[in-house]
Amino acid sequence: MVKPLAFKGDKKTKKRKEPSEDNHLVEKSARDRTFEAQEDDSWVTADSSGDVNGPVVIVLSSTKPVCIACDASGKVFASELENMVEGDPATAEPHDIRQVWIATKIAGTDNVGFKGHHKRYLSCDSIGIFSARTEAMSLEETFTCIPSTDTPGTFNIRTQRGKFIAVTDEGKEIRGDAESVTFNTTIRLRMQARFKPRLKASRELQAKEKISRKELEEVVGRRLDDDEVRSLKKARVQGDYHEAILDVRVKGKHDKYS
């Protein structure tokens, strides 16, 4: 489920923390960190076609940085980008919901569809004209994101008629009938970090690893030496954390009565 989008400058509401019992302290802490990783709404660049999923901004190559947008009636237009670091389109983020599309993979293919804020799909007709008025995907609502061989982190997006999405140098007109790959067909896809597979897996792994000695000692019920702390942290990553906790507790009881 895609959560509501957040833009720069929006105030974030603080989530209430529920009290937890000692035996569940570390488990709750881990869930909180994993939740934060899953809720990451920062924007990153898609590097491969496998990354393209969830909310995206389709950034076009023109003298003035623009992206593909649509209004509530389904009219598609080039929208000027404002949220960038020093004017670099590689850092672009949306400031208007009309600039955001939900990329949906088509099962069993390398193709994707782009759904707008108004629940209609981006469509390109036989002469290269764009609109967004269709509720279901067909040939005209299906695109293939081909990684660029010249510029890492960019794509050439091809329609199912074998043409490419392009923009004029001035960034005023978007077409879907380019015959070949050029600078004007080079597209950067900015996406939310939590949907990027490798980044998502990495952050969830970091969330599992990030636990303090104090939290571990509260669960075990005694002070731990350095080897025990390292062993428990490793067990959390490998998936046998609860067994390791029991082993450490048993060892502590044996040491107490030896």
Structure description:
Helices cover 25% and strands 29% of the residues. Strand 2 and strand 3 form a beta hairpin. The strands form four sheets. It has a six-stranded antiparallel barrel. Strands 5-6 form a two-stranded antiparallel ribbon. The chain has helices at residues 25-38, 197-209, 213-220, 226-238, 241-257, and strands spanning 43-45, 54-60, 66-70, 76-80, 83-85, 88-93, 101-105, 111-115, 121-124, 130-134, 143-147, 155-159, 164-167, 174-178, 186-192. The chain is α+β, with helices and mostly antiparallel strands and 258 residues long. The protein contains five helices and 15 strands.
Fraction of residues in β-strands? 25-35%
Shape: elongated
Which value, in Å, is the CA radius of gyration? 24 Å
Could you give the order of strands across the largest sheet?
2-7-8-11-12-15
Query: For the residues shown, what is the average pLDDT?
Result: 83
Q: How many helical elements?
A: 5
User: Which ranges are low-confidence, i.e. pLDDT below 50, for 5 or more consecutive residues?
Assistant: 19-26
Q: Helices and strands, in N-to-C order?
A: HEEEEEEEEEEEEEEEHHHH
Distance from first to last alpha carbon:
54 Å
The secondary structure category is alpha+beta
The largest β sheet comes out as: 6 strands, antiparallel, barrel
Helix fraction bin: 25-40%
Number of strands: 15
